Predict the 3D structure of the following.
Amino acid sequence: MADQLTAELYAADGTRSGEVDLNPDIFGIEPNEAVMHQVITAQLAAARAGTHSTKTRSEVRGGGRKPWAQKGLGRARHGSIRAPQWAGGGVAHGPKPRDYSQRTPKKMKRLALRSALSARAADGQIKVVEDFGAWSEPKTKNATELLTAMGVTGKVLLLAEDHERLAIKSFRNIEGVIASNLGQANTYDVLWAETIIMSKGTLDLGQNVPRGTEEHAEQRAASRELPAAGSELEAGDSEGGAE
């Protein structure tokens, strides 16, 4: 990855206003494909309804009487016409309702998201909007005009801050666009999109200092009145608790 990554910076009306530097700890890491694969697999599994169900031979109606005598007729012996080998019978080892969700550690989710963003940043697929504060009401027209002015086509992911709900509402009715706040950002959506539009306030992924860095460890140590990183608290241990 490049030491210094930049992204195109635009105003809310689509006018290009320059470039913005991207944090290398978020957008410049080496993508971990194995972690991304595991996180996406877990996300897709959690989206499964798991309501599929088939009836076993005991649940199919009928078949309570033995179809013919056990011996003397030269036929194969059967005890019920609802056995799995009979047409209209039950299903052997068929699916039953179940929960497909998998537990994914938070550290793994963060690494997968940063890996996906780094891959998109390396390909120049991230664009930044300074602020959506100029939008006074949710209008799809504003969103389509912004996309046209930015020259964006294809599948788009918009990541905005919580207070920028007007922008999220403006984009959500456009086909091929996923609009969400930063808290809903996930690896699958990042890799699905061909272009990622982020408001400037979301570039730190909701944290002023990236997790896993010495600065983050020192910041947490100061907030807890603990020894600074490098003495008793290591930067790698700073991610252990919930933020």
Residues 5-47+103-202 form a domain with the Ribosomal Protein L4; Chain: A; fold (CATH 3.40.1370.10). Residues 14 and 151 are 9 Å apart (CA to CA). The beta strands are 5-10, 16-22, 126-129, 156-160, 177-181, 195-199.
